[in-house]
Inverse folding.
């Protein structure tokens, strides 16, 4: 279900719709304002949740409270797409991403409707192998487009000292796991939690604490793709059967970008406040290029990362869904 805060946001929604059409995922589109038509938003979300909608995409600009209001009225995953109307969309980005515990919004970059749809498809793909295969095929198309763009650029480079080298690079092989027995291997946990450094472990512990509450199995490790790239690549190769990743990092926050480079599964990103109150990490995580979204949460929101993971996994796991609903129904206001 795609909900727009205003009809003027449709140009961003079109990017999402184009992706959903390619991936053959059914959708509906509604216009409802969190502030002007609050009851309409609530009714759409509650009825859609009851009728089996799996993921909501909220698209809004300015004081973009729409995705948050959606999240307040459902236990299903909510993807937020901030729209650039004023301030380069930063107002909408902060309003969308900085949610309190209990109502996570998986936020993508400003105006990135296509990444919102890809993230929604990745979430559905956790329990739908057909969607995973279509996503993998689409990712190959992104690779081939970049390859063609490079060839066109080479034709324009005519400088005397331009010396083009030839590199043997194999065509992109999708990382999608087609074998259901491997993908659902009970010997593997559902979630891999990756902290970029030991200074991020305080937030990582919040995440694992809430995963424990939801009864979700997980790996937890500290590894930097910048300091230890070979070790990082090896770790990604050793976690083929996890269903999603949670990457926690401050500063330039390269961990999330490195993870999405190695997987087609959902990646939840938690920026940490190491410098600049975490704004550097937030902007580094959320503003990903087309095709590789990161489900970015608010600064230091380790608890919401676990709850978002539960919302994603709960689409195909009744035990996790019930644990999540029970937690939300009995939740006190926590930081």
């Amino acid at each position: 279900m795609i909900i727009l805060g205003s009809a003027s946001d449709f140009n961003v929604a079109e990017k999402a719709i184009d992706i959903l059409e390619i991936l053959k995922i059914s959708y509906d589109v509604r216009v409802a304002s969190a502030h002007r038509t609050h009851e309409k938003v609530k009714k759409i979300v509650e009825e859609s949740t009851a009728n089996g909608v799996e993921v909501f995409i909220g698209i809004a600009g300015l004081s973009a409270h729409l995705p948050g209001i959606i999240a307040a009225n459902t236990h299903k995953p909510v993807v937020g797409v901030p729209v650039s109307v004023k301030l380069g969309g930063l107002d909408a980005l902060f309003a969308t991403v900085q949610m309190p515990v209990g109502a996570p919004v998986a936020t993508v970059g400003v105006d990135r409707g296509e990444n919102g749809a890809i993230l929604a498809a990745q979430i559905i793909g956790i329990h739908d192998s057909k969607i995973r295969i279509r996503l993998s095929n689409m990712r190959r198309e992104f690779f081939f487009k970049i390859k063609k763009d490079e060839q066109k650029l080479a034709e324009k480079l005519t400088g005397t000292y331009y010396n083009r080298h030839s590199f043997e690079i194999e065509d992109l092989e999708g990382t999608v796991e087609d074998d259901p027995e491997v993908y659902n291997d009970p010997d593997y946990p559902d979630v891999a939690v990756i902290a970029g450094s030991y200074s991020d472990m305080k937030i990582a512990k919040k995440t694992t604490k809430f995963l424990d509450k939801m009864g979700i199995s997980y790996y937890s490790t500290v590894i930097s793709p910048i300091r230890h790239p070979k070790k990082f690549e090896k770790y990604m190769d050793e976690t083929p059967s996890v269903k999603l990743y949670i990457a926690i990092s401050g500063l330039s926050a390269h961990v999330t970008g490195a993870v999405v480079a190695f997987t087609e599964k959902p990646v939840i990103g938690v920026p940490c406040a190491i410098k600049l109150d975490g704004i550097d990490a937030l902007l580094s995580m959320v503003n990903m290029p087309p095709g590789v979204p990161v489900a970015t949460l608010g600064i230091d929101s380790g608890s919401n990362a676990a709850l978002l993971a539960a919302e994603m996994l709960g689409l195909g796991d009744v035990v996790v869904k019930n644990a999540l609903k029970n937690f939300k129904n009995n939740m006190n206001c926590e930081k």
Summary: The radius of gyration is 20 Å. The first strand starts at residue 2 and ends at 4.
